[in-house]
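README, section 4: Worked example with a bound small molecule

Sections 1 through 3 covered apo chains. Here we extend the same pipeline to holo records, where the ligand is supplied as SMILES alongside the sequence. The molecule in this example is zinc ion. Nothing else about the input changes; the structure line simply encodes the ligand pose together with the chain.
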Amino acid sequence: MNTLKFSALLLLGLLSCTEKVIEADLLIVNGLVYDGSDTIPKSTSIAIKNDTIVFVGTKDVDLFKAKKTIDAKDLIVAPGFIDPHTHADRELKDPDLSHNLPFLLQGVTTVVVGNDGDSFFPSSEYRQKYEAHGIGTNALMLVGHGTLRKQVMGTSNREASKDEILKMQALIHKEMQAGAFGMSTGLFYAPGSYATTEEVIALAKTVAEHNGMYDTHLRDESSYTVGLIAAITEAIEIGRQAKLPIHISHIKCLGVDVWHQSDSIIQLIESARKEGIQVTANQYPYDASATGLKAAVVPRWAESGGKDSLFIRYDDKTVRASILEETKKNIVRRGGPEKLLIVKTDDSLFIGKTLLEISKIMGRSPEETVFELLKKSYARVASFNMNPEDIHNFMQQPWVVTGSDGNTGHPRKYGSFPRKYDTYVRKDSIIDLATFINGSTSKTAELLGIEKRGKLLPGYYADLIIFNPETFQDQADYTDAFQFSKGLIFSIINGKLAVSDGKFTGALNGKVLHKKSTNSLN
Ligand SMILES: [Zn+2]
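The generated complex, written as structure tokens:
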């Protein structure tokens, strides 16, 4: 060996000797790692100290000093999923349910709450509540437009005055300063549906001043009022004028009237994106939607003023005929009474039956049955109204991310993420695994404006999951919507184990995330 070679070897030896030992609380080795943005997985090790990822890469195991090592052989390691549309605030506020298990066991480590224009108000009160009793996943809040409108003008069916808009803007300002990430609208629902586009733009401008985003349940996902295409155009126009990112929730073509419009919608969104408007969407992997029975089929004008007003109108024989006629049309729009499955109501006899079946039991027409049910209690429906072509088409767009819209009675609350993996990645090959993971992690973090989450990188918060690619699967369906998903082996949230060896550890590791507002008035 010549001296040059010898000294090079000596130098290498010295270098490796002096290579620093990394101290870690948790070390994950031997897994197939998808880092949230790359398309190719790597066999890297990940070290976590406190709540942060301190190392990602290949390194001799001897060079770590870890309190606990997880052998992820034959398993997939990914950033924790971020769910941009849930109704999990119902659980988070309840100390017995704030573990958020239906989401946690899907691999979700962060949920968005306050969607569809409906948020708990004021958010600071709920933030304190969540922090006081602890939550199982991270949560971030949107401020609901419908909630603010109710604060300022009740449920009245009219345009907001200038003064009322100023009042709503002041409330948004406060909520954004309190850490909200943006504003949600539910323009399909009362009272959001009573708002003009100009009202929404005015309020969205206040959100934009705080660097927030806009999340919307469109004014129409079907052919109820303006139609799906016009509703998409409205959302884009709000982004254009208020200059903020637009996120369309649970994108779909709802009902036969608008089936196969996905191509036109994709074109509209693509050209808006080329124009510089940041438009994205989320989608849940099911062909049935879910909503309140009233919202699904009762005309909006009839419910103006609330439930009491609805039944005063309904009891008036001159008005009843037109209410029933429009309700009937709305049932047809959703595919008929056999396509509406009751998933929640006070009378357990009706749960799991279609509107058609219940109407036969009651001996009334389907549209009359709607009001008999609503008289008794609130009712929710699963509404089978989508076709696979549109579902696949949306899913394949690079700007569409996974979102559950998880709420009680629909299996999507317990199964969205594993179902997308099992059905659309594994069985049907509609998208590949990296596309699914990236569209459930980093892309979602980016569109929401979440910092340092959604990727497995040094310096990022340690939110990550480890699942078994052979068994990761949803278990909930329409007959039993309350079955936890399976196949998640570990979940680490803010550096601590929430799921270990497939079991919930009981630890509530979630944080309420706070958007750093850039408003100069702070
Ligand atoms: Zn919605």
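What to look for in the output: The first helix runs from residue 3 to 18. Residues 116, 217, 249-250, 405 surround zinc ion (CB under 6 Å).

Section 5 describes how to batch many such records.
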